[in-house]
Design a protein that fits this description.
Structural class of chain A: mainly beta
Radius of gyration of chain B: 13 Å
Largest sheet of chain B: 6 strands, mixed
Distance between the termini of chain B: 41 Å
Order of helices and strands of chain B: EEEEEEEEEEE
Oligomer: heterodimer
Strand content of chain B: over 45%
Number of helices of chain B: 0
Radius of gyration of chain A: 14 Å
Helix content of chain B: under 10%
Distance between the termini of chain A: 37 Å
Largest sheet of chain A: 7 strands, mixed
Helix content of chain A: under 10%
Number of strands of chain B: 11
Strand content of chain A: over 45%
Number of helices of chain A: 0
Order of helices and strands of chain A: EEEEEEEEEEE
Structural class of chain B: mainly beta
């Protein structure tokens, strides 16, 4: 039983550089979510996909952030021109849309440090 | 707008004692409510969820939570704490399951 995986687990970058994270959801899940979690806070919703369509984006997702899910399977989150304030844990979750409430299963996260 | 408030950023109990982690929500419509646990350097794991069926929800690892509409609460309890319960606990609310709002978290410490 493979859960949600994220790569890399840790990323250290210099301010101004671009970074890209990858999320592989549970294979049959059609929904995929990205969250950001800063120290001492709960996760904050960034965006979500249903299959390959990006259906909702939080206002937290500035124009330096872009997420894709080109084939409805894995997803990437890119941050351009990173800033120190982007340092956080980036969490991915997936779920299977069905009747009732869909349970979101989380990956281990990618911890980003911007120097 | 929906949100959750977790009272107490840090709770400490002795092994074998009752665990009570508080969560209050604000939502204009009946919400879905969740409790997740996060161990160090790991993702979030679902403990339990409320979806308007039974108000007392039983989850994994002996945890349960009771939905009280009159108090807008969804507190998490466990009768007897175990050392392995030490972790960060997050309450979350959603009414459309697309946009889940998390509380700030409560760190549970279990003393031997």
């Amino acid at each position: 039983d493979t859960g949600v995986s994220q790569n890399p687990r840790h990323k250290i970058t210099k301010r101004g550089q671009n970074v890209t994270f990858r999320c592989d959801p549970i294979s049959e899940h059609n929904r995929l979510y990205w969250y950001r979690q800063t120290l001492g806070q709960g996760p904050e919703f960034l965006t979500y996909f249903q299959n390959e369509a990006q259906l909702e984006k939080s206002r937290l997702l500035s124009d330096r952030f872009s997420a894709e899910r080109p084939k409805g399977s894995f997803s990437t989150l890119e941050i351009q021109r990173t800033e120190q304030g982007d340092s956080a844990m980036y969490l991915c979750a997936s779920s299977l849309q069905g009747t009732g409430t869909d349970t979101q299963y989380f990956g281990p996260g990618t911890r980003l440090t911007v120097l | 707008a929906q949100s959750v408030t977790q009272l107490g950023s840090h709770v400490s109990v002795s092994e074998g004692a009752l665990v009570l982690l508080r969560c209050n929500y604000s939502s204009s419509v009946p919400p879905y409510l969740f409790w997740y646990v996060q161990y160090p350097n790991q993702g979030l794991q679902l403990l339990l969820k409320y979806t308007s069926a039974a108000t007392l929800v039983k989850g994994i690892n002996g945890f349960e939570a009771e939905f009280k509409k009159s108090e807008t609460s969804f507190h998490l309890t466990k009768p007897s704490a175990h050392m392995s319960d030490a972790a960060e606990y997050f309450c979350a609310v959603s009414y459309n399951n697309n946009d889940m709002r998390f509380g700030a978290g409560t760190r549970l410490t279990v003393k031997p």
